[in-house]
Amino acid sequence: MNENLTALVPELSLVGAAVIGLLAGSWLPRRRQWLVAALAAAACTAGLATTAVTMATGREQTVFSHTFAVDTATDAGRLIVLGALLLVIAMSVETVRGHARETEYWVLLLLTGAGTLALIGANDLLTLFAAYLLASLPGYALTAFAKDARGTEAALKYYLMGALLGTTMLAGTALLYGAGHATLYRDLRTALPAAPYGLVAVGLVAVLAGPLFKAGAVPAHFWVPDVTEGAPTPVAAYLTTLPKIGALIAGYRLLHQALSGSDVNWPLLLAIVAAVTMTLGNLAAFFQTSVTRLLAYSTISQVGYLLMALAVATRSDLAQRSLLFYLAAYAATNLGVFAVVTELPHARSLDDFRGLARRHPALAAVLLVCLLGLVGTPPTGVFLGKLEIFSAAVDGGFTWLAALAIANTVASLFYYLRWLAPLFATTAPAPADAQAALGRWTAATACAAATVSLALGVAGGVVLPFATGGLLP
In the chain, how many domains are there? Predict the structure, then answer.
């Protein structure tokens, strides 16, 4: 039993900062609550530095009786989550500054971030479920942080669906335990091939309900539009980005490590879920006029593309690196768009962005880069991510899925252009009040995210090798 706590420094940094921040916030005056935000940023930075050292030394290990794995996928996921969390913290500064519950905001953000990191390395069904709870519960509170009608309704829907699918996930865990007499992935891999087919199939579908809910995939996607529209914009940015990273890497690890020898045809199941998710997300986004709901359905469609890597988890050597790279590019690009929406708190419809290029050229440039990036336009990171993930699908025998994904990508250009076209309109611009800027921190975050999106596309050849490597048993 390897009880090496140093292997969990990134996770412990976030949890420790949350505890210290909660205690400190009880004594700090309201004008000094920003110190908790600085503590949260320091915890993320410490986690990034530790992960960089781990990757440089190449030390891979499983800890606590193999229930948590520190390998290539874990390290890459940590870098993505912690980097994205830093962007969310920066874009939240002006939104929650001086708020009566500012400390609680940072603490909840740190705790749900720690849960997301736990999802990434979970190598055991019980660890996976515990991480699911830690990643979910603070998110429900964050959704209702504003305590208004829309936020409360969204939080209630989010909580009820999370509780339902969390219970389903726990039931699936019990079924897989009954089938394989173990919860460790490596033990299940040897036991499940000899277990009853129906028991394994039902158990797997039930367990996958949790990660699919966190990712916002069909049929567990109903919470996404309401939460994106009802929650504070930085919270919506977080919930449509970071939980996806943890859920998809967790799902990939589960399928690759525990189900690789099973007779259950889960690759076809994941391929169908991917196809339905990307198609429904795109179709629902076509005629949205609210920017937050458009982004909500956009994130659903992006999950469909990402699920293609899970469908070929054991069929293609390109699956892991395509998933990790796409997640990094998507996180930066999606947060860039949400940072612009946060910076313009009164611009809530597509018409409110008319003439933005004249009033705020930098923000218009960020939207241009990030929205075209979400389509998959070169030289952004998402373009290279889609190229990799489509190649993995073809390599894994799902050519039809890759063709459908290409068709969906072309179709998505329609609703992104509906947003981009008004930016450069020279007639009938939106009122100046609709485009009043929030502050410098959020604008800087938007520019930084767009820069990272472009950098990943340009330097993809340098970044991709870091996402290549096997999973620890």
Answer: 1
- Does the residue 347 lie in any domain? yes
379: in domain: yes
Confirm whether 353 is domain-assigned: yes
pTM of the model: 0.96
What are the DSSP calls for 19-88, one per residue?
Answer: HHHHHHHTTS-GGGTHHHHHHHHHHHHHHHHHHHHHHHHT--EEETTTTEEESHHHHHHHHHHHHHHHHH
- Alpha-carbon span 331 to 324, nearest angstrom: 11
CB 36 within 8 A of CB 102: yes
Does some domain include residue 167?
A: no
What's the CA dihedral at 27, 31, 36, 40 to 10 degrees?
Answer: 170
Q: At what angle do helices 319-343 and 381-395 cross, to 10 degrees?
A: 150
Query: 332 with 381: CB under 8 angstroms?
Result: yes
- Summarised one tens digit per residue, pLDDT across range 300-357 is 999 999 999 999 999 999 999 999 999 999 999 999 999 999 999 999 999 999 989 8
Beta carbons within 10 angstroms of residue 84's beta carbon = 27
